[in-house]
Amino acid sequence: MSTVAPLDLDGHCLTAGFISNNAFFAMADGAVHRLAGGHKTTPVHDGMLCATVDAASSRLLTGGEDGKVCAVAADGEASTLAELGRKWISAVAAGPQKIIGYASGRNAYVLAPGKNPTELTHPRTAEGIAFAPKGLRLAVARYNGTTLHFPGTESKPVELEWAGAHTNATFSPDGAFLVTSMQENALHGWRLSDSKHMRMSGYPAKIKSWSWSHKGKWLATSGAPAAIVWPFLTKDGPMGKAPLELGTRGNSMVTTVACHPTEEVVAIGYDDGMILAARFADQKEILLRREGKGAISSLAWDAKGMRLVFGSAEGDCGLIDITS
């Protein structure tokens, strides 16, 4: 059984997540809402474009149309970490030891506390950024591939080439693989030990959400009428292997996925607002929320995997307690 506590907000929810066990909702209008002894709101940007939870530092990182990169603490206090004037911040990422990454136009930046940012320039727009799980390595998704940077070292960037527009990047939890989403309804990947390619295609829509399982053996993705879950069980990753298809609904599209923090289970959000949970082993499904207003745009579990926070493109947000 589960209970749903709704929170009706105005506008598009970019990111929903937990900070110090409280639910946070980052909205496109620039406000951050939180549930902490009631509903509270912090104005952060004049138009927000991106947000991500920095779990290690108990904060929410945000970037906006106002050229600012901000951090929102667990108590809701917002601070400005960087400013780029009239340039829009299109991507933010959390790195080790409170280091952050952000992107604007053709440039990506790496900022360590108390230091000036390192600027990394590319021939084309820096679309998506991600830090490796170990060390200080930043991947920048771009047109025709991805660039791996090693800020603070003499190492030259590593160029991983593949024709097409790459829009986001993610490292596997063990750092062995890098996967990008593409403009053409596909994923592309590289095994980093030898730069061998992995192509994951066949999606009817663009992949806007992905999530690694807690041990990194599976990568769940949106972009189809089911959650497409690719196996990364061996050194070859998904090469030559078929994915799982979980939570298939013929008339609906999966828009968001979030893997459970301790079990091989994935929460699946759909374009009609429904949310299911599905288990990898036997594909068993549990309904967590019926249809709602707007497509599910963000999902996140708490650290214990007992609560699930969700946001939608229409501000139809809330909290699901699966212990009830």
From TrEMBL:
<keyword id="KW-0969">Cilium</keyword>
<feature type="domain" description="Anaphase-promoting complex subunit 4-like WD40">
    <location>
        <begin position="261"/>
        <end position="323"/>
    </location>
</feature>
<dbReference type="Pfam" id="PF12894">
    <property type="entry name" value="ANAPC4_WD40"/>
</dbReference>
<protein>
    <recommendedName>
        <fullName>Anaphase-promoting complex subunit 4-like WD40 domain-containing protein</fullName>
    </recommendedName>
</protein>
<dbReference type="InterPro" id="IPR024977">
    <property type="entry name" value="Apc4-like_WD40_dom"/>
</dbReference>
<keyword id="KW-0853">WD repeat</keyword>
<dbReference type="InterPro" id="IPR011047">
    <property type="entry name" value="Quinoprotein_ADH-like_sf"/>
</dbReference>
<keyword id="KW-0966">Cell projection</keyword>
<keyword id="KW-0677">Repeat</keyword>
<dbReference type="InterPro" id="IPR015943">
    <property type="entry name" value="WD40/YVTN_repeat-like_dom_sf"/>
</dbReference>
